[in-house]
Design brief:
Elements (H helix, E strand, L loop, with lengths): L3 H25 L4 H20 L1 H4 L6 H23 L8 H16 L4 H24 L7 H25 L7 H37 L11 H18 L3 E8 L2 H8 L1 H19 L5 E5 L2 E7 L3 H17 L2 E3 L2 E3 L3 E7 L8 H16 L5 E3 L30 H8 L4 H4 L5 E3 L3
Parallel strand pairs: 6-7, 7-8
Antiparallel strand pairs: 1-3, 1-6, 2-3, 4-5
The protein binds 3'-deoxy-guanosine-5'-triphosphate and magnesium ion (2 copies).
Amino acid sequence: MIDPHQIQLAGLVSQATFALTLTMLAWSDRRSRGMTWLAGACGLQLFASLSRNMWVTGIKSLNEAAGSCLLILLFFFVYMGLRWFVVRRKLRSIGGPLCVSLSMVVVLAINPINSDVALAIARLTALTIMGKTVEMLINTRFRALRSNARVTASFLTFVICVVAFRLPIDLHIVHLPKAVEDLAKAATMVSATLLLFSFVGIFVAESKRRLHDETRIDSLTGLRNRRAMEEIALHEVGVSLNTGRSLAMLMMDVDHFKRLNDTWGHSLGDRALRAIGGVLLTVTGADDRVMRMGGEEFAVLLPGFDMQSAARVGERLRATVEGLRLNENDEIASFTISIGVGVWREGERGWTDMLRRADVALYRAKREGRNRVVLCAETPAALPTPAAVPATVATKIEAPIVEGRAGWRSATANRPSLKADSEIAAVEATQA
Ligand code: GH3
Ligand code: MG
Ligand code: MG
């Protein structure tokens, strides 16, 4: 036989434990705002259970209507908390909170007249919120949270089943033996405990997801870093190996960056790196294939691009960066980049050879005067014009041309003839 008191006591202990745990997790990681909602829901549940089980605490029981409102509020908190984890968007409309408040007002108003109707409204509202929550969990945006969200969804479905099963009993529509009713109460406790347990799981999954993302993002520019680059490049090489699709990469290095820092200060140097990052993102339109490799070096992966089309993208990038102007204390700074183009060769299982070729080409660009795009070896020379740049990589950045400070301008004044010759893009082939 189930001893209802023992079950309830065990339920209270587990709820108190979870309330404490979730509060500590929310406290330890203030950025996980969803956890604050879930800890709040857990606290509400503990409060409701304590007031229902007066035999434990001796406190005065909540009246029926207040208890029902608490139930609605509790599942609304659960919805909001889980929404933060799996959707991460603000509530766009106030429809949800409005319906919750309205149903609570109705429950409180109806209770003195007919407590059963009030109870039914409260339970149906809570069931609706839970149903919405399950739907949201199943359609989570984040792949890393998907399995944990599904576990939470299945425990929540268990709670829905138990609440729905108990509704006709609590409304005295169905009369079941006391043993079955006790079993239903025990099932409520068990389902609630499992649900709370799954909240810890979703918190851990979210922490892992964030750690994964943050260790792959460069904090200064917001671009992917080298670690991310390695994973993405290997993936792209795998796709090219399977499909025969071409793959190219651009290696970029800011010209005389040390001099830029020395002349204008590191904060302008940092701004220059961020501005270059912005150009790379805007021109290529592919935020997951643009990386800061370290220092003042950047790389772009171009799946589906051959040497010539990659060179045109490189030229567009070079020209756009050359046109950038940064204002520092009413003076204007400008800077340039050198670019090496490397391509993946059929059969290559890794990306390091492509990287090495792009690096050699970059080195050559530096040696030949900087501010230019150079192709890796074994490719004939090509001079694509700006008009030949594919529409997909057309730049949206238009920077005014302003005279810069003499000291800094002199740093790039001796750049090669590529721009002086004409507006023709400078793309050179190396034979080295
Ligand atoms: P080159 O044209 O040959 O590439 O010359 P360079 O001066 O750009 O190259 P060098 O390797 O001599 O200098 C790179 C400089 O980049 C040195 C370092 O202080 C600076 N740097 C590296 N990372 C950062 C950063 O995050 N912010 C700033 N402001 N400077 C950085
Ligand atoms: Mg460098
Ligand atoms: Mg440099």
